[in-house]
Amino acid sequence: MNKREQADPRPRYRQVADELTAQLRAGVWPVGAMLPTETELCATFAVSRHTVREALRLLEESGLVQRRQGSGTTVLALATPDRFVQDITDMAELLQYPQETRLTVLRARTFEADAETAAQIGCGEGEAWVRVEAIRRLRVTTAPLCFTTLLIRAEYAEALDDIGVLPGPLYALIERRYGVQAALIEVDIAASNVPPHQAELLEVEPGTPALLIRRRYLDGQGRVYEISEGAHPAPRFTYRATLKRIPELP
């Protein structure tokens, strides 16, 4: 280890990961190529196999490489893919995510809620709704952040015409057109896998781990008027919440 490495406060595996990332960015290994073996990397960086494996783990989590036992490490990208990190401390920040991304509608259809669907949505049987499937991106040219399914009451369907025309997420477009405000937002977060019919659109392999975020928007009368469900393939999205303890009153 040289003096520069001794002065570097970063863990050695992080240093190795950063050096490999820089080499990928410089085009040392093209997409689809195999990285040197763990043994070769150990010799190159004068580190242990454990250090190399931790460095490769960081590269894999960043979406740069894919490791397969017995097959080696394949280059997937030359630069870290775009990633969206959402910090949540209040309702305004909860709604920040759809404001900073771009939604592209793929298809939409109107349906009447049967008994099972009505129970899932929390509406009356026979009520008319619109189902929308869309892709959300951070920018037009970047890889998709998530596959989004939207359900809105059919009476607010004209707000869909404003997507991509007026700024803001769908709930804001509904508020602008109809004066309906979200008084309560319920959020469910679960681990999932990307199903085959979404994988191609998300540019990932079927079964890729994903973060499933479901939001239910309720108006001032407690009526559900919009539901959004987004499947976010790893590692393109991070959901971070900040919790603050409130001192107990004496």
UniProtKB/TrEMBL annotation:
<dbReference type="InterPro" id="IPR036388">
    <property type="entry name" value="WH-like_DNA-bd_sf"/>
</dbReference>
<feature type="domain" description="HTH gntR-type">
    <location>
        <begin position="10"/>
        <end position="78"/>
    </location>
</feature>
<dbReference type="InterPro" id="IPR000524">
    <property type="entry name" value="Tscrpt_reg_HTH_GntR"/>
</dbReference>
<dbReference type="Pfam" id="PF00392">
    <property type="entry name" value="GntR"/>
</dbReference>
<dbReference type="InterPro" id="IPR036390">
    <property type="entry name" value="WH_DNA-bd_sf"/>
</dbReference>
<dbReference type="GO" id="GO:0003677">
    <property type="term" value="F:DNA binding"/>
</dbReference>
<dbReference type="GO" id="GO:0003700">
    <property type="term" value="F:DNA-binding transcription factor activity"/>
</dbReference>
<protein>
    <submittedName>
        <fullName>DNA-binding GntR family transcriptional regulator</fullName>
    </submittedName>
</protein>
<keyword id="KW-0804">Transcription</keyword>
<dbReference type="InterPro" id="IPR011663">
    <property type="entry name" value="UTRA"/>
</dbReference>
<dbReference type="InterPro" id="IPR050679">
    <property type="entry name" value="Bact_HTH_transcr_reg"/>
</dbReference>
<keyword id="KW-0238">DNA-binding</keyword>
<keyword id="KW-0805">Transcription regulation</keyword>
<dbReference type="InterPro" id="IPR028978">
    <property type="entry name" value="Chorismate_lyase_/UTRA_dom_sf"/>
</dbReference>
<dbReference type="GO" id="GO:0045892">
    <property type="term" value="P:negative regulation of DNA-templated transcription"/>
</dbReference>
<dbReference type="Pfam" id="PF07702">
    <property type="entry name" value="UTRA"/>
</dbReference>
